[in-house]
Write a structure and sequence with these properties.
Layout (H helix, E strand, L loop, with lengths): L6 H14 L21 H7 L18 H13 L7 H8 L7 E3 L10 E2 L2 E2 L2 E9 L7 E7 L4 E7 L5 E4 L6 E9 L4 E4 L7 H30 L1 E2 L2 E2 L4 H30 L7 H24 L10 H11 L6 H20 L13
Parallel strand pairs: 1-5
Antiparallel strand pairs: 2-4, 3-4, 4-8, 5-6, 6-9, 7-8, 10-11
């Protein structure tokens, strides 16, 4: 992995950061902190930069910049505390599905199923409640299990038994015996180390990394001008040391996220559990860093003066959006045990073909 900054990605990052700075932030203390989906305010920014072409292969008219470019876009969206209007279309493109849909139900992975799909005549009947990116989307891409493996199913918003709730955060979609057939199945969400689910996990890990970085930067700025006991907060060891430790955690998490993306792009046979590790690590880092940032800024963190509450409410929903960190770590641990047992038995130490489903 080349640790030197790529000049192209540096320019893309600058362009994204400048454009996202012009997006109006929701400073209200009540209601959703961001707007996701195709109608979100970040959609205009991404379309102006042709972000949809970043990961698309050259054979399909894209720029073929790899998953690293998608990770960069997700990180900057999180840093600006903006809604993520990129991830749904990116996952849909990985599965050769149309753009413009909203993701739902991924929080139940890698174990369990938030939306069940018991068999019925000609297909399955979806039942359950799941978080969704955008309740106003015309189509929902729902993660469920039609057998032993998770799949992504396309469900129209106007289908029978579908209802949405936008008055809560995050918004949810409910299914009450919604009929689907094999034609609705977009594709499997298998545990392939370089498959659509692994790529989606790395994008989400980068989004969480960005949220943590944005909150940390806001806390640093506040601690730099707020004075207490005759000095700046940042000059007090009780404040500066935790912020310094948080910076170390951010750097380590960033290395894990970008290493995972680099492996997917350049050394796919060595990916293993890197996407799951990156997502679990980013989820825990984001929770810890945002909580520390709130404590650093005190009561002002919960007011519209700083707007740090947006990061707090955002990470509360996003840190488990693609699976609970504890479940992700268990999947990693189980894979390590399988690998060690095979090595001990003399059958080799290569990572399995599928992990963390």
């Amino acid at each position: 992995m080349d640790l030197c900054p790529d000049l192209l990605f540096t320019q893309v990052r600058k362009a994204l950061r400048t454009a996202l700075a012009g997006v109006d932030a929701r400073m209200e203390l009540h209601g959703a902190p961001v707007t996701d989906g195709v109608r979100g305010p970040t959609r205009t920014v991404l379309d102006a930069l042709d972000a949809a072409d970043f990961e698309r292969p050259r054979s399909l008219g894209g720029l073929d910049l790899g998953l690293t470019a998608g990770v960069l876009v997700s990180e900057e969206l999180g840093r600006a505390a903006c809604g993520n209007s990129y991830r749904a279309d990116a996952l849909a493109a990985d599965m050769s599905a149309p753009a413009g849909a909203a993701l739902a139900g991924l929080e139940a992975l890698p174990v369990g199923s938030g939306v069940t799909a018991p068999p019925r005549a000609g297909g399955w009947a979806l039942t359950g409640t799941a978080t969704v990116d955008d309740v106003s989307a015309g189509t929902f891409l729902v993660a469920t299990r039609t057998g032993t493996e998770p799949v992504l199913v396309a469900v129209e918003r106007e289908a029978a038994g579908v209802s949405t709730e936008s008055g809560c955060w995050p918004p949810v979609v409910r299914f009450d015996g919604t009929p689907v057939t094999a034609a609705n199945v977009v594709g499997p969400l298998d545990g392939s180390p370089t498959g659509p689910l692994a790529r989606a996990r790395l994008r989400q890990a980068a989004y969480l990394l960005g949220i943590a970085e944005g909150a940390h930067q806001m806390a640093l700025r506040y601690a730099g001008f707020r004075r207490q006991f005759g000095t700046r907060l940042r000059d007090l060891p009780a404040v500066s040391f935790p912020l310094a430790r948080a910076l170390v955690s951010l750097r380590a998490t960033g290395a894990a996220v970008y290493r995972g993306a680099w492996l997917v792009d350049s050394v796919p046979e060595e990916v293993g559990t890197a996407p799951i590790v990156a997502l679990a690590m980013a989820s825990e880092t984001a929770r810890d860093v945002v909580r520390l940032s709130m404590q650093t800024c005190g009561v002002r963190a919960m007011t519209a003066e700083l707007g740090l509450h947006r990061y707090f409410r955002l990470v509360a929903a996003e840190s488990a959006r693609y699976g609970d960190p504890a479940a992700l770590w268990r999947a990693v641990g189980a894979d390590r045990l399988r690998t060690a047992r095979r090595a001990e038995a003399g059958t080799g130490s290569a990572a399995p073909a599928t992990v963390g489903r």
